Each structure stands twice: as C-alpha cells, then as structure tokens.
Amino acid sequence: MEQLRRRWRNALKTRGRLFLASIMALVLLSSGCAAHEPSDAPAEVIDAARAQSLISAWEEQVDGAAELGWTPCPDAPEFDCGRLEVPLNWSDPVGDTTRIAVRKLSPASDNAPVLLILPGGPGQSGTELLTDLFDAGAHPEVAEQYTLISLDPRGVTGLQAADLPLDCPTQAQECAPSEALSRFASTTDVALDIEHLRGAVNADQIRILGYSYGTYTGALYGTLFTDHVAYAVFDGAAVAIGFSPLGYERQAIAFEDALDRFLGACVVGELGSCPFTGDVAEAKAQLLQLRALLAQQPLLEDSGDTDGVIDGDTVTQHLLATFYGPRSGWAGTAGWLLEVQSASAEAQLRDTGQAGESDREEQGESHDADELSVPARLSHAVICAMPDAASSQDPEAGVEPLDGDDFFFVPDSATSADIDAAAHACASGLPAHLDTRIRAEDGRKYLVTSVLGDPATPYTDAATLADALGAFLLPVEGEGHTSVLGQSPCATQISMAFLANGELPAAGTTCAGSAS
To answer: What is the pTM of this model?
Structure first.
C-alpha cells in the first residue's frame, strides 16, 4: 500500500495541483489569511508597450549586464544552476531586487535554440519540472536539439529555493512568499522576468513548452513580447476564467465526470478487482460512505520508516492524482481502494479506535502541506491579477452552482460561498501589475493541445485559448492532464515538429493517448 501511496503523492507534485491547491488558496483568501494592506500605488494593467518600457528601464539601470553565474547543480551535475537578478518591482528599477532560480541542460552543440519549459500551478517549480522531465538522459531527441531552460517563478520553492528572498523560518521547505514579494508576483511580473532571462541567455527568440498554468504564463509572455517567440506549444491549456470561482465549479464538475467514468469501468470489471458493486450511482454512494468512514476512523499505516494516516482526505487526494494521470493508472487505484476498504472493514471489526483525533495529532496529517497547497499570498498575487478573477458562480454565466451529498468533488454550498467571497476579496490589496488579456498577432506561432478527458484543465479551456491566439488545436484522446513528453507519443511528435520549424499536422488530426 505504501508504494501506491507514494505514487499519488508524487503525482500531485508534478505539473498539476491546480484543483485542490486553488480551492484551498481561495478559501484562505476569503477568511482573510492572505489579504494585503491596500497600497498607495494603484494597480496597473501592463500592455505590450508598457512591458517593453519596463524592460528598457531595467536594462538601462544595469547597463545591459545580466549575469547568471552558471555552475553545475549539486543535485544533478548534468544540469547547470544559475540566479538571475531582477527588480522586485518592475515599475521601480532603482529599488530593491530579487533573484530568480534558473536551471538549464545544454546539448553538445553551441548554437542550439532555447526551449523554455514553463511549469504549472500557480506555485510549481520549473527547476524541478525540468529535472523530472530530462533527468538520467530522458527524451534525448529533445535534449540534443535544444538548450533547455526553466525557472522558478517568483514566490515558488523549488530545487534552488534557498537563495530566494522568502520568509524561511528554518528550512527551504517551509518558505513562504514575503508580503513585499507577493505584491509583485503576478504572471505579468513572471513574464517580465522571462523576457530579461531571454536577453541574459542571448537568444533573439525562444521556443516555449508550457504545461497547465504554464500555458497561461507562456501565452501572456507571447502577448507582451510577441517578436521574441519563435514557436510555443501549450499543453493542458489554462485560461484566466479557469482560475475564477466559475472556473473552479466547472473544474469540479469535470473531476466528477472523470470519477463517473472510473467507477463505470470499475463496476463492469475493466479495472480488475473492484471494491464497489452496482451501477455508477451505487458505486459512488459506496465510495462516499468509505470516505466518510475513514474521516471518522482513519487507518494508521506503518511503512517501516514513516507512519502515516489514511483518512477521507487521503482517498480524495488519491483520486485527484489518479485523474491527473492517464487511464492506465486506473487499475492500480481500484486495487488501492480495495485494500483500503478491506483494511477499514477489519479495523471496524477490531473497533480499536487507534486512529482517532488524538492519534491524528501525534502521527500528523496524511499529506504534507507543502506538497498540496499553494501559499495563499502567492495565489492572491497571481489569481487576482487575472482579467476574470472576480467571475462568480453566476447561473447566467453558463454553470449553475451545484451542491449535495451525491457529489464527490463538487464543493458543498458553504465552500462555494467561500470561493465566491474570495473573488470579491480581489477588489482590495491588488497586486501591483495586472495581466492584460491574451491575444496574438500571429496565431501560426502557437499550437494548443489538450486531452479530451482532462478534468484539471477541461478541453473547453484549450478551445478558448486556441481561439484567443488563433492557434491550431490538437485534441488527444484519453484521460489525464497533459500529454506532451508523457502519455501521447503522437502529441509529442507533432509538438516537437512544430517547435522545430512550425510544421503543423493536417486539419482535423486527433492523437491517441495512453493505452488503457
């Protein structure tokens, strides 16, 4: 069971985490945990002309110099680690500065084009993503063609986080964005950092591969600095409306639909042993009952070196991680649920009560907070800077708010109210720099791809982004979140060909995803 448990915990650390992390951050916002004091300086929407003027002012301040100080990374010597100095406030180039963690993997050739890898989130590490994707010689056909680069966006704790100007009580894992930094950590600020990074690596143009929230970052960068984008692929597209209360409701429904498909496959025997019986509605009722039982009577798990708790939240997180991945992982989750169900039944028979609230306090939660949540201050800066941050759960906007005991992922009415309140909290303490709306002067620079069964960033979001950019939209059959350099060789091949020279597939092309 421990091996399966580690699998879902690791899955939540890569690319996704959008659903739970954003919900948690918004609820924190609505309770006042992340509100900023109002600033005397009004928030400013940064358009392309203003963005270029900010870059020019900073370059004049530093006399065009941008040193990264590349050295071999201690954790992975085949990669180089660097730090890029940028202004804390891009509107104040003579004020305080901060340093951004950057990581690269260089090919044998000296003049390879730059491919920038952008992580999901908000709150995920680019240095960690780059290492995960290309460690131990993975994807050599890509690593040999490009200088691969990624960065940790402002406020993110990554593999090189120790030098970032964060509040760090004891160690890097406990860092959180400071008040000063979080006011200047919007996606627009990150896009300005990327533009300075482009100059620092002496690239006239860059290619971009963005995942999840990284697609929004890349699209905004392209909106502000269109001439400096050669080609960009956006996988698992995230759009501004997707981070609003309306978007979270829509996303929760998508996870609910994925759960229905999982349970449907489970009860008809497609996943091997299934812990549930009956039709989908009956199976979901049994799952809800199991989660409620574990919430009241968690299981203690002794893995040999660590003790953990399997409770109702563990079941929810395991299923979230499952639906971030391809359908090929469904059978393993069905088996894990069967193990948990059997262990829970045995615990009830013993009626020992060993996993009560007092034991939960001694053993700790079943997941690590730094793995599952985005710091609330960072989310405030990122989400409240988006054009659609205050879009509420309005039935006239296309989705009627849902709540009820028959749903597993759809928030109850109390949580929905908290999320709505968080949106209105954006009216005060806005970040300094607000995002302009995504647009493109040349849609031929962009390819958007999405898995049709993706619950984290539903396919409709990919269609919305493709429309905004005038980009080619490549559907991928299957389940899970993202596919390039992952579950779909077809999407990977098409994306790499596009990044190389702008080559697009025939109209109407659909790729296969992971085999079931």
So the answer is: 0.86
